[in-house]
Design goal:
This protein has 233 residues and is an alpha+beta fold. It is 18% helix and 49% strand. The chain has 3 helices and 13 strands, in the order βββαβββαβββββββα. The chain has a 6-stranded antiparallel barrel with strand order 8-9-10-13-12-11. The radius of gyration is 19 Å and the shape is globular. It starts with 6 loop residues before the first strand and ends with a helix.
C-alpha cells in the first residue's frame, strides 16, 4: 500500500515587518512545508538570523523556521514545522487521510531511515568526510543501494560543498565496521540555522565508486535490513 506523505494546502506566512505572504497549493507534510520561498536577499537574512515565523496551514497556526535546500533545480527555501499540539497533530492526520498524496519524488531504490531499523541489525551509522577545516563526522539519516543522506553540525554554510561535487568519505557501521574510500557525487544539500552561528547541514550523495569488498559488505547490510523489515510487516 502506498503511504500518503503529503497533502496540498493554502499557506499564509505572517510577517510583522511587511505584508503577509499567501501561497496556494503548497505541499505540506508532518515535518514541514515545501518550497515556500525562492532565493532573495530578504529570505537569506531571515534564514541567517534563524528567524521563527508564524504560519497558517489550512486553519492551523504553527511555528516554523526556514530550511535552505540546494538541488539540481537550484536553491529554494522550505519551512520546518517546529512543534504541534496533540490536537494539531490530529488535524494533520485527518488532512492526510482526506487529501493525502504519495511522495511526488520517485526513487529507483527507496531510502531506508536509520531510525526505523533495529539497533541489532548492522547498518551505516556515521560518515567521516573531509571539509576545508579538517575532517567532519556526520550521522546517517537514510540510505539505499545507490546513495545515502547524512547530517552534521557546523558554524555556517560552506561554499566548498555544492551539488555536483565529487567527494570521498568513509562509512562506519553501528557494529564498528569501516567501509573506506567511498566515492560519491553530492546531489542535495539542505541547511537549517538553529540559531545564528549554529547550523545543521544535510548532504545527500549518490555513489559513483565503491571498493569491491566494501560494496559487498554494504549490499549485504541492505539485504539483511530488507529481510528484517519484511519480517516486521
Amino acid at each position: 500500500m502506498t503511504k500518503l506523505h503529503y497533502f496540498k494546502a493554502p499557506v499564509v506566512v505572517f510577517d510583522e515587518e511587511k505584508a503577509n505572504i499567501s501561497v496556494s497549493d503548497v505541499l505540506v507534510s508532518r515535518q514541514g512545508i515545501y518550497r515556500v520561498f525562492e532565493e532573495s536577499q530578504q529570505v537569506q537574512q531571515d534564514f541567517l538570523s534563524a528567524r521563527i515565523f508564524t504560519v497558517k496551514v489550512d486553519n492551523q497556526y504553527l511555528q516554523a523556521r526556514l530550511v535552505r535546500e540546494q538541488g539540481s533545480e537550484g536553491v529554494h527555501y522550505n519551512m520546518r514545522i517546529l512543534s504541534m499540539t496533540e490536537i494539531q497533530q490530529g488535524e494533520f492526520y485527518k488532512l492526510l487521510n482526506l487529501r493525502g498524496i504519495p511522495s511526488p519524488w520517485s526513487r529507483e531504490y527507496p531510502r531506508i531511515p536509520t531510525a526505523n531499523t533495529s539497533q541489532f541489525v548492522e547498518k551505516p551509522a556515521r560518515i567521516i568526510f573531509p571539509r576545508v577545516a579538517g575532517q567532519a563526522n556526520g550521522v546517517v539519516i537514510n540510505f539505499s543501494y545507490l546513495g545515502l543522506m547524512f547530517e552534521f553540525s557546523s558554524t555556517g554554510i560552506s561554499l566548498s560543498e555544492y551539488v555536483g561535487k565529487s567527494t570521498l568519505f568513509h562509512i562506519l557501521t553501528n557494529h564498528g565496521v569501516v567501509l573506506g574510500e567511498v566515492e560519491a557525487r553530492i546531489t542535495r544539500i539542505y541547511d537549517e540555522m538553529k540559531s545564528p552561528g549554529r547550523l545543521t547541514r544535510g548532504i545527500g550523495v549518490k555513489f559513483t565508486n565503491f571498493h569491491k569488498s566494501s560494496r559487498e559488505i554494504y549490499d549485504n547490510m541492505i539485504l539483511d535490513i530488507c529481510h528484517e523489515i519484511k519480517k516486521g510487516n
